[in-house]
Amino acid sequence: MSFTRAEAFAPATMANLGVGFDILGLALCEPGDIVRVVRREQPGVSIVGIEGDGGVLTRDSRKNTASVAANAFLQTIDAQDGVEMTVYKHLPLASGLGSSAASAVAAVVAVNALFGSPLTLAELLPACLEGEACVSGYHADNVAPSLFGGITLVMGVEAGQIHKLPVPPNLHLALVTPNVGVPTSEARAVLPKMIPLQAMVTQTAAVARLVSALYRGDIEEMAAAMELDTVVEPARAHLMPMLVEVRVAAKKAGALGMVISGAGPTLCAVCDSEGIAKAAAAAMKDVYSEEGMGSAARHTQVGIEGARVLNLA
Amino acid sequence: MSFTRAEAFAPATMANLGVGFDILGLALCEPGDIVRVVRREQPGVSIVGIEGDGGVLTRDSRKNTASVAANAFLQTIDAQDGVEMTVYKHLPLASGLGSSAASAVAAVVAVNALFGSPLTLAELLPACLEGEACVSGYHADNVAPSLFGGITLVMGVEAGQIHKLPVPPNLHLALVTPNVGVPTSEARAVLPKMIPLQAMVTQTAAVARLVSALYRGDIEEMAAAMELDTVVEPARAHLMPMLVEVRVAAKKAGALGMVISGAGPTLCAVCDSEGIAKAAAAAMKDVYSEEGMGSAARHTQVGIEGARVLNLA
Predict the structure, then answer these.
(1) Which of B20, B155, B208 sits opposite A23 (nearest CB)?
(2) Is B204 a catalytic residue?
(3) Which of A74, A284, A310, B50 has the greatest number of CB atoms lying within 10 Å of its CB?
C-alpha cells in the first residue's frame, strides 16, 4: 500500500537530564517539527520549502538534516520513487531542544508512512541518525526520545541499545530559551577531556538515584538527582546567561530542580504540577526580561508517544 | 529494658556490583560474622575472644573494628556500663567480602540489643562506620548492605544518603575466594586518578541500565550491565588470578555474568537459579584447582534482611 502525500510530527527533546550527560533524554509534548512529503516519480528528495527557520537552514537536500534522513530511508528500502519535502520548523535552532533531530525524525516518519510503512519505528533509527549526523554528529541522545517518545536511556546507536524508562505521573516541565546562541560545538569544546575518578563515582551515584526515582515516580528525588552533575554543568555554566538567577527564580516559583537542556541555552525546570510549571516558566522569563534579554518560555509535559503521522492520503 | 547478654549476626557483602564502583553493594544470605556481648559494670569494651581468624586480627579493643564500633555506640548512648565481646569470624579476611564491616555491624547490633535497642537501625550507621574506618576508611559500601540488607545505593555516609534498590526474584550468586591476599589498599592504589570523560559516559550508562534491570527484575540485563565496567576491573584485573578463565568457566556453567567482589580477590557470578549457581561455583573452583591453587567456593542469595539479633537474654 502506498500513498501520495504524508505529514508527520516529531517532538523537541531535552538531552542529558542534568546528570545523565550523553545518555538520558526525554521527548516533550510540544513544540515539535512537522514535515510534509509528496511522492514523485523522480528518485531522491527535493526540499521545496522550509518555514519557521528565518531562512537560516540550508535548502540543499544533500545537506539538510531532514532531507538527508529521508534519503537514507529511501535507500534503505531501495525506493524507485522520491519525494518533495516541506519542513515546518516550530522549534528554535541551536537552543538545546534537539531541533535537527526533530526535523530528521519527522522526515523519516513521514516518508515511511508515504511508502506504506515498510519499516518499524526501531528500523527507522539508522536513517534518522544519518540526518542528525550531518549537523551534530552520529549520536542518538535527541533522535531516540524524539522517535520513541518518553524518557530514554541511550547506550549506543543501535535500537537494542536504547531503553525506555518510566515517566513519573504529574511530571511537568518549564522551559525558557533566551535569545542567545550556544553552538553545540562550543558547548562540547568547554568540557574537560579527563575527570577525576571521584567525579565518576559521584556521577554514577546520581544517575543511579535518578533512574531509581523514575521507577518510583518520585519527582522530588528525580529533580534532586538531576541537579547533582559535577562535571558538565560547571564546565558549561558560563555559556548560559543568568543560570544561577534563573534557577533561584524557578525554585521560588515552586520548581523542584533546574538543569540545562542539552547543550543549552534552554533551561528546564522540573515541577510536579501544571500550575507550578506555568508559574516557573513565567518567573524564569522574568529574570531575562529584567536584564533586557528576550526569551521564549513554555510549560509542557513529557511526550509519551514521540513522533507520529498526522496526515496520510 | 536491658539484658545481660546478646548475640548478633551481620552478613558478608559484595561491594561495587561491577560497574557500581564505590556506590552499589549487596548483602549475602551467608556467610556472616557473629558477635556475642556480655554486659559488665566497667565502661568500655574488652575483647575476650576472637575465633575463626587464625589469630590474625588484633585483640586490642582500641584497634579492632568490632570493639571500636561497639565503643562508638556506647558513647553515642552515653552508657555507664560496658561489654565483654567475643567475635566469631565466619568469613575470610581481605577477600572482598566486607569482613571488617560485618564484624563492626554485628558488634553494634548486638550491643544495641543488649542495651534495650535505644537506637534504630539507621541510627546505628555512624557507630558501624567508626569501626569500619579503623580498617579501611570511612565509607559505607559494605557497612550499609550489611546493616540494612538487600541491594543498596550508597551516596554518602549519612543514613539519608543510602537507598535500597529492588532485589530481583530468583537471583542466585556463586562466589569463589582463591587463597591469595589482595589488600584493599593495593587494589585502590592501582586505580587511575583521572579517567576520560567518555569513560564516565559509558559508566553512567551502564549503572543506569543496571538500576533499571533491578527494578524490572531482569537478571540477564543486570548481569550484562554489571560487566560493562571499563574503569575499575581493567585496572585491577592483574591482581585477580585467573580472572578471565574463571569468568569463562562460570558462563559455561550457565552464569549470566561475573564480576570482582569489592576489591577482590573473591569473584562473584550472577545466576538465575540455584542449580546454575551451584554448578558455577564448582566450575569456578575447578579453575583454581587445576592451577594448584586452593579456594573456597559457595553459592548463596541476596540477604534481604541484613544484620539481626540472634540471641538476647
Answers:
(1) B208
(2) no
(3) A284
